[in-house]
Amino acid sequence: MKILLLVPPSPDHKRIIRNIDCSHEAKADYLWQPNDLMLISALAKAEDEVRFVDGTADRMSREEFFTTLGHESWDLFVFCLSSAAWASDFGYFQETRALFPMTPAYVLGDIFLEKPYQEIILKEAEGIVILPHQCDLTAMAAPGEKNRPLPGVMTQVGQNVLGPPTKPVYSELGSPRHELFLKPGYIFPFARHYKYATVTLMWGCPFSCSYCSDAHFPPVVRTPESVLSELESLEKLGVKELFFADKTFGFPQKNSMPLLEAMAKRFKFSWSCYFHPQHYDPVLLDAMVAAGCHTLIIGVDSANLDSLSVYKRHVSENKLLGLVRHADKKKVDVCADFIIGLAHETLEDVKLTLDFALSLPLDYASFNIAAPLPGSVIRQEALESGLLTIGSEGFDTLGHSGVLASAKIDSAALLKLRRKAVLKFYLRPSYLWRRLSRLSSLEHLTIQMRQAVGLFTKS
Question: What PROSITE patterns does its record include (predicted)?
């Protein structure tokens, strides 16, 4: 079987990241590997031919993209689209569909969390990939009745592919075809080496924060054995740097500890991951450090942690402070995400959040404008109130293509607050000294400098 995986070029060569659950423009000079396509590549059989074209990573023009596609026949193709670049992405999809009119076409993207976009795309595509680990590529490529049920794929508008939230489901997913995704256009902002690979132990999220699209996707967990086999393959490819793309690494802990213990004994990878403060356990963090973890990305979101319960987010301040202090002691870098413009927060609340960020021993801070992302309660309320209408897309947490005013702060002020927060956090002499003291190599320095330039350019 011949499988074609596609990411279109982005408008003005923006670094747009496209995932099933979320998409956005990078806040600095980085670009993540397309994790969902990587998982789909893991489903291919050894004898299958898989080709991957990324017009964003390779900074292609329209002509270069379609010249690269050529006119070769394929058994199916999977195309990534984004709410942050919907008009452009949909145009590229339509042209690709016209180029391969007889090839079964499937799409993925955060925008398909909304029914109007499901209606648009299912007139032209065979289905929307919702749960990549469940896909049956042979069934997807087989001729058959349109709208027929397919595992992990939405083939009818409003179809419930996810099912009810459950305890973690275990999957024996194999290794992605990493050799396809080791493009120089992919850069991870916290990596210590340019060449890196994305690995997933858990897909989906066990939490239910309503301002986040991830809350829609129940967790699917791989066994430690399958991940260790993947790490062996990456070691042979000469990869030293990893990004664990789990929405929160270490869940469930009983599944993660055997992997970490084996990694500490068998490998010398350096790696980063997302980590939920509520999962903090000193034993778990020590095991992560022993296995090579050097950076944690955590959600703090607001100085007023208790107020976040209105969005079904629950974080203990003791857990958060314990995690940050423990990481600092172990010289593990921490990037904390903060949200500017939540509906219940005033200008004074935002200032308190910035002060909180400055008070913590952090290595990076990502200041995100509260955005009406597909599937989020922010978007739902904006649509219900008339602040947005269906067809209003392009919003993301960077705010370059649109900012929705909050109930208490206008859009122009939100942009100014974000810029002020970035400058105030990163231009402190004490912060600059901290970063210099934590550099591990000349390569690490060049990555950090590149991200700094990108960050200030976009702020």
Answer: MOAA_NIFB_PQQE, RADICAL_SAM
